Every structure is written in C-alpha cells, then in structure tokens.
Amino acid sequence: MTVDFGDIFATKDEVAKQGRVLALDVDQVYPDPENVRTAIDQAEIEGLAATIKERGQIQPITVAPADADGRYQIYFGERRWRACRHLGIKVDAIVSDQTDAAQVRIDQFIENDQREQLSTRDTVAFVQRQLAAGMTIADLARATGRDQARLSRFRALIDAPDFIAARLDDIPVRGAAALVKAAGRDQAATRAFVEGAPIGTIGVAECERFARELSGPSRPPAPDVALTPAPEPSPKTAKVEGEGAAPIATALTGRSRSKPVADEPGRFIDVDGKRARIIEAVLQFDDEAMPRTVRFSE
Predict the structure, then answer these.
(1) What is the assigned CATH class of domain 5-105?
(2) CA neighbor of 272 nearest in space, from 233, 239, 223
(3) Which of 108, 31, 105, 98 is nearest to 71 (CA)?
(4) Which residue has better confidence, 213 or 216?
(5) What sections of 161-284 are H helices per DSSP?
(6) How far apart are CA 244 and CA 266, in angstroms?
(7) In whole angstroms, what is the distance from residue 20 CA to residue 272 CA?
C-alpha cells in the first residue's frame, strides 16, 4: 500500500505562517459534516497511522475556532485526525481565522482533489452544492482552477438516472455524461445497455458510440421486402435467417468496416419491384443484448 506522505509532511515555513500549533484531544475535534470528501479508506488511515507513529505528525490539521462546547470542527486534515484517533494520541492542530464557509468549501475541494483525486460521486455532490449556492460553472472553474468543460460533465451527472448513478465509480465521467444524454432520448435502451455490461467493461468510446447511434435520425418502418436467392455463404460470410438467405460480411463490433465483398445476388433485395443494394444492416444476435450495425464497403 502506498502512503501519501504529502498528507503528513510540510515545511516549517508553511506551519509558521499559520500560527500557533495546539495539541488537542481527539475527542475535542470532529469532522466537517459538509466536507467534500465522503469516501475514506480505512486501510489508508491505518497506513497513515503507522507512519505518524514512526515519524510523528509533522503537518498539523486545520480547524475552525472552538464552538460553544469548546470543540473544534476540522477544515483540513480529517485523515490525519482519524490516524491520531486510531493511535489514541493527541492531534496537532492550527486554528484558522477563515470564517467564510463558501470559501472553505472551495479550499477543501482543491486541497482534497490535489492530494488524492476525489471520487466522481463526491465531485458531483460538490458541484451540485456550489450551483445551488448561486455559483455558475464558469465561476466554479475560476475559483477552483478546474477545466470548465469537465465541470460541465459533472453538472450533467447531477440528475443521472439511478442505473447510471449506481455505476459512477465504474464508468468514466465523460462516458457517463454521454449516457445521461442517451437516457434522455431512450431510457429503456440506455438502461439495457448499462445493466447488460459487466463492471469494468464500459469505456468512453463505448458510451459515446451508443449515444451517437441512439441519437441518430429515426428510421422509417421497414417495407416488406423479398430477398433474391443467393449461393451458400463462404467462410468469410454469415448467413441471415429469414425468408430466403443472403450472405453478408462477417459481423463487426462497429469499430471497423467490413472488407469488400463480391457483387453476389445476395447483396441486393427487391423493394416494391425495384432492385436495391444492401449498404447497411442492423443485426440482433441471440446471445447479445444490443444490436450491431454492419456496413458493407461500396
């Protein structure tokens, strides 16, 4: 396990600038209920505790002034406080003179995200709270130094359907944002796509491809057609079941095009008495949740 030594070490100048260090009983200190980070790994706390036991707590935590009960709310350093509590020792702390709660939230976001990137859930919750407080995405980008386009994707996830929200730790932010748009067009199809994919298998490319296909122009109802007779498929072709048989190019995943095939009779169909070339076909395989689009080379 890797321990983030940046969580316990600081230069003497940094500490001196913040004021006098207090040694507080851990019971005098409590976490900020509105802290932007909610996911804390106990294994990391134990690793941090082992390091503090060996080297001491070199970087104090930062707390708000004591409340009416004489207790201190943590601004920065909850993991250090938890490590000290795990060891049963006092925690070194500096009392901040910052009283602007909104600025504290911004500073917490920056501090937490720089030390260890916040989870998607925590970042979405942070963006939601800041927007509710009256900030715009542009304001938030300036205040945090984060990319405006990326913050906009987190905003898009605020109202994500439950089946997407449940996979936020698994699906990349950009991919999840694309799925939210797709769900706005066809929630049932998007749910089937998400729930049919095992954990760890949905990437940005897959999500954006699915969203593009779903947002394409609506297809008109297919006319009744009769396929012309065709020869038996070769090893490089697949047979389409139905009224008659027609060889098609080997099925693709959509990432590449099929190789050119010969101009056999099976590449054509009769529609209302007219001969037409098959350019693209949508196939639903029995063992697959989503249909595939197969495009033939001209």
Answers:
(1) alpha beta
(2) 223
(3) 31
(4) 213
(5) 162-165, 173-185, 187-195, 204-215
(6) 9
(7) 89
pTM, two decimals, is 0.46
Contact between 207 and 178 under an 8 Å Cβ cutoff? The reply is: yes
Which residues have a Cβ under 8 Å from the Cβ of 57 and sit 6 or more positions away? 8, 80, 84, 91, 92
- Residue 95 tokens read as 């009392």
Q: What is the pLDDT of residue 182?
A: 92
> In this predicted structure, which of 29-38, 81-90, 165-174 has the lowest mean pLDDT?
29-38
DSSP structure class, residue 117:
P
- Higher confidence at residue 234 or residue 110? 110
Look-up of token digits 């049963």: 88
With tokens 């033939």, the residue in question is: 296
The partner residues of 22 in beta bridges, in order of sequence, read: 93
Looking at the chain, how many residues does it have? 298
pLDDT of 28 strictly over 60: yes
